[in-house]
Specification:
Blueprint: H1 2-10, H2 24-35, H3 39-53, H4 67-88, H5 90-121, H6 124-131, H7 139-145
Helix pairs in contact: 1-5, 2-5, 3-4, 3-5
Amino acid sequence: MLKQVWIALAIAGMPLVAGAQQNAEIAALGQCLGDNTTGKERKDLSKWMFLSMAAHPEIKPLAKASTAEFEQASRSTAAIFTRLIAESCATEVRAAMKTGGSVALQLGFQVLGQLAMQELMTNTAVQGAISGFEQYVDRGKVNTAIGNP
């Protein structure tokens, strides 16, 4: 089950399953997780997500983090996760698990992952890097495809 939560956190950008967002217990869990983490903790979670994705063989050559840095990020994430589950949001976790099982826990942490990514995305350097691809877009083809001559 923990592996599933980590994966949900790592794929935070994916949309929530239809209907699950309406579940009050899952919404309460997501709210609790967000309310009980600091901006620094959410950045730490984002760092862990980045380093985890950098383990992929096609991405690994682009990341320069050491094994010690990845271990530190994993330890920090584990401490945040443990505190949230066992202390800060224990009531919300139990309620969500009761109604939705491990999927509810995954979805709650997906909300936290989305918050963590939003914090990074508000940085002007990140926004500039993300929008940098636009200079290479064939606007004529895109406009034709969407029906804008």
